[in-house]
Amino acid sequence: MTSDNTDSKQRLSFKAIYRFLGGATIGTLLLLIPVTYGTFNDLGLVQAGVASLLVVLCGLLSIVWGEKFIDVAMRMLNGTGL
């Protein structure tokens, strides 16, 4: 019984890690859209901090809401027409 509990916990932690990485990837894609139209010289410390916060926030939201968040984010990306 104990191995079932540890296997279940391990699967849940792997699932959370994968969700975070998926959300962070979506956050990075969201950041790259406006950055590709600008220059990298204008990127300051505050902008880098906000960008990092956005990536982490997208990762955390994907852990909490899972596929619902990822689906909404992907629909938003598809709606940009890029």
Characterization of the model:
- By secondary structure, this protein is mainly alpha-helical.
- It has one domain (2-79).
- 85% of the residues lie in helices and 0% in strands.
Distance between the termini: 51 Å
Number of helices: 3
Secondary-structure element series: HHH
Question: How does the overall form come out from the CA principal axes?
Answer: elongated
Number of beta-strand segments: 0
* Overall pLDDT confidence: 81
Uncertain regions: pLDDT < 50 for 5+ in a row? none
Helix content percent band: over 70%
**Measured on Cα atoms, how large is the radius of gyration?**
16 Å
Beta-strand share of residues = under 5%
How many domains? The number is: 1
- Sheet bearing the most strands, described? none
Output the structural class: mainly alpha
Instruction: Write down the oligomeric state.
Output: single chain
